[in-house]
Amino acid sequence: MHKLTTQISLLLVALMILPLVAQAGEKNAKSIDCGKLLKGVAHFTDNDVRFKTKDSIVIFIDPMSGPEKEIIKQCNFITPDLILITHAHSDHFQMEILKAYSKINPKVIIAGPPDIVQVLADSDINNTKSLEPGKDYSLADVKFETVPAYFLRGDSHPKANGWMGYILKINNARYYVTGDTEAIPEMESITADVLFPLVYGCGGNVANVVKMAKIIKPALVVPVHTGGNPEAIKKCIDAMPKGVASTYFIDGKMLTEKIQTASD
Q1: Second label for 4, Cα 20 to 30 Å away, from 119, 139, 140, 221?
Q2: What is each CA distance from 218 to 122, 175, 185, in whole angstroms?
Q3: Contacts for 120 with CB less than 8 Å, ≥ 6 apart
Q4: Residues pairing with 42 in the sheet
C-alpha cells in the first residue's frame, strides 16, 4: 500500500511539474535537450543515480535497489563496473545490496570514504578503494572528482567525517551527485553540466538547492533524495534560477526529454 501511495504521489507531481518544465512560448528561451544530456542516466530512489557511458561502463552511486527489483531489470542497470558510496547512512549504503551486485560482477570496484571501505573489508568485500574529498581519481576507466559533503551546523553530517559527493567526467559532460550536503564554500570552484542535489530530508531543502544552482550554474538540475515528496519536488523545479533547467525521474524514467528555460 505504501509503494502504491508513493507511485500515485509521483504521478501527481508529474502532472503538477509539466507546466513548469515546458515554457515553450517564453521569449528568448533556450532548449535543453535532456534526452541527449541524460542519455544513459537513471535515478531511482533516495540518492540512487546510475550511469552508463558511451563505452558501456556502468556506474552506480548509492544504490538502494537490488538487482532482483523489476524496475532495475527493466532499466537494465544490473551489472556495475564501479560503485561509489557517498557516506555510511542507511539511505545511501546497504551492505546486502552491494553484496548482491558483487556476486553479479565479482570485478566491480566499490569506492567511498575510509569508514565505508573498512565496513566492506569486515564483510569480506575487498575489491575496494578508499577515497578522500577534494581529489581526482580514475577507476574502472572512469574519471571523477570527489567533493566534500557536509553541513555547516549540527553533528549529523560533519566535515570531519570525510564524506563526499562525486563529479563524473563521462560522455563529454560533468555530472555532480552531491550526496548529503548543503551549499558549501567548496562549490565556488566547481563546474558541472548536470547537478543532482539533496532536496528533502537529512537536512536538505529547496533553498539550499537554489543556492547550489546559483553557485555552480549547471545547465540542468535533477532533484534526487526527495523522499518522494511531491510538494518538495514541485517547489524545487519551480524555484530554479533563470537559465537553469530542471527535470525529474520517476522509476528510472525521465519526466520530459526537452525542457525550455529562459536565457540569462
Answers
A1: 221
A2: 39, 9, 17
A3: 95, 98, 110, 126, 128
A4: 50
CATH code of the domain containing 165: 3.60.15.10
Q: How many helices (H) and strands (E) does the chain have?
A: 7, 17
Indicate if the alpha-carbon torsion angle 180, 253, 96, 226 is positive or negative.
Answer: positive
- From 205, 130, 218, select the one nearest 175 (Cα to Cα): 218
Rounded CA-CA distance 92/82 in Å is 15
**Model confidence pLDDT, tens digit, residues 168-224:** 999 999 999 999 999 999 999 999 999 999 886 555 578 899 999 999 999 999 988
Cβ contact 105:81 at 8 Å? yes
Rounded to 5 degrees, φ, ψ at 57 are -85, 135
Can you say how many angstroms the Cα of residue 241 is from the centroid of all Cα atoms in its chain? 20
Nearest to 197 by CA among 250, 240, 257, 139: 240
Q: What backbone phi and psi angles, to 5 degrees, belong to 171?
A: 50, 40
- List for the chain the helix, strand, coil content (%; round to 5): 30, 25, 45
Which domain range does residue 121 map to?
26-259
Distance CA(96)–CA(102), nearest Å, equals: 10
Tally of domains within the chain: 1
Query: Is residue 138 domain-resident?
Result: yes
State which amino acid sits at residue 191. Answer: T
Quick one: cell of 92?
Answer: 545511501
Phi/psi of residue 240, nearest 5 degrees: -60, 140
